[in-house]
Each structure stands twice: as structure tokens, then as C-alpha cells.
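INPUT
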Amino acid sequence: MTNYGENPQLSYNKYLKVQQLIELQENLALPEKHDELLFIIIHQTFELWFKQILHELDATILYIRDRRIMRAVRNIGRVCEIEKILVNQFKILETMTPHDFLLFRQELKPASGFQSTQFREIEFLSGLKDEKLMQFFDEEFAIERLNKRFGAETLHDAYFGFLHNQGFAVDNFETRVESVIKIIRDIEQHSEEFALQEALIEHDELVSHWRFHHIKMVERTVGGKMGTGGSEGVGYLQTTLSKRFYPEFWEARTRLEIE
Ligand code: HEM
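OUTPUT
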């Protein structure tokens, strides 16, 4: 009997490249420190999920362009579920004591999460582009990826482009806030616009939760120490808490009144 499409060479380990995957964790500290493996695996899993988030958000932009709004909403829903897991993942790292971290922290300098290219890509793709951040990257693959993202359409552009095509005014911040208010006032009349807006504000809010939980985890582990990347640490991270992908959505809540 012919098994169409079956590959006798294939196995679980080959398909998922498990051998390569579990060889990718290299401790720096010698003699080996027990918690360094957890530290590496946590960061690698974050980066894998960041890759999946970028994959979903890239597809979302295409769906919005094609006016396939329910598809776009579902994709962002998946991103949000991943983000909830990522926020909780910090709890695993909090099982490492401040002292056990210090046993290998020195070896990490000057590496830092600040150099996470994919994290910046998520910010850029979502709608928050900050050219100043580009100067901190010097690896070729990172510069190439960030330059590409910097010039590309964002989810913010895609959402307000969609509203424009639906007849809403979107030419400046004020008119965009007014359009958001109109949608919130009559969600049945503007159900697709509202559903997409809700999905995006959830993504925005969950990234804020990520920032907050990261800071609390950092504080619990290293207190007010300077970061391995050279910043003042928690003090710097607190300045990022006010970052928003869709300021128009938040401003609309402030201005909304009953008609
Ligand atoms: C013990 C664990 C951790 C500590 C003590 C820590 C500490 C810090 C500090 C102090 C900064 C500020 C930059 C610097 O000077 O280094 C930073 C930035 C950052 N970290 Fe962590 N971190 C930890 C775990 C993680 C994990 C697991 C991730 C997941 C990818 C992560 C991602 C980031 C990102 C993306 C930034 C840049 C944030 C921004 O600029 O908005 N960190 N971290």
C-alpha cells in the first residue's frame, strides 16, 4: 500500500530539530552555576514567542488591508494569549534568588534584554517607532531587521487606513480621536471597527503588563542596581511604562461623554 506523502526518514526529533534545539544552551559561568540554564531557557523561549507574535502581526496587517477583519481579530487574539503566557513566565524567573543570580550575572555584561531586536520589532510593527533606539544595535542582522521594520506599515497605520476607507476622518490626532469616539458610541453600527479596536487595545494593554511585570521581576532580583546593558536599571525601565501603541484609543476614553 502506498502511503502518499509519508516520509520514512521523518521523526519527531528530526522535524522539530530537537537535538539542535537542546544543544543551543551554553552556560558562560565556570564552574557551572545551576540557575544559568533557567536564565537562558527563559530568554530563548521569550524570543521564540516574539517570533510567533511577529508572524501573527505581519499576517494581521495583510488581513486588514484585504478587509478580512474577523481574521485580523482572531490573529490578534492569539497574540494576546501568547502575551498572557509571557507575563506569567516572569514568575518562573522569580524562583531564582537574588544571590543565585549574582553568581553568574557578571559574566553577562554588556549583554542585556535592551538588545532584544524582536522586542523592538514588536514595538515598531505595533505602531511605536523610535529612531533613537536604532543606535543601540550594532549586529548586522539586527540593523537589517530594524531598518526594514522602520520603513514598513504598522498596525496603527493599517487600523486608521481601514477607518479612512470606511469614511472616517483620520488625518491628524484630533480627528482620529473623534473617529474612535464615534465608533465607541455606536458599536453595533461600527461592529468591525470596534472589534478590531478592542483587539488592538488588548494587545497594547498586555504589552504594558509585560513592561510592569518585567520591572517588578527586575526589582525583586537586582533591586536598584545598574542594568547589565549600562542603564540605571529600574529607573530607566519605569520611563517606558507610559509607552502606548494607540494613544488615540486611550485619549478617546478621557474625552467620551454621554450625548
Ligand atoms: C533576572 C532577569 C532580568 C533582569 C535582572 C533584567 C534587567 C533588565 C534591565 C536592568 C534592563 C534595562 C536595560 C539595561 O541596562 O540592561 C532590561 C531591559 C530589557 N529586558 Fe530585562 N531583565 C531580566 C530578564 C528579562 C527577560 C526574561 C526578558 C525577555 C526577553 C527581558 C527583556 C528585556 C527587554 C526587551 C528590555 C528592554 C526594555 C525597554 O527598553 O523598553 N529581560 N532588563
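end of record. The mean pLDDT is 96.
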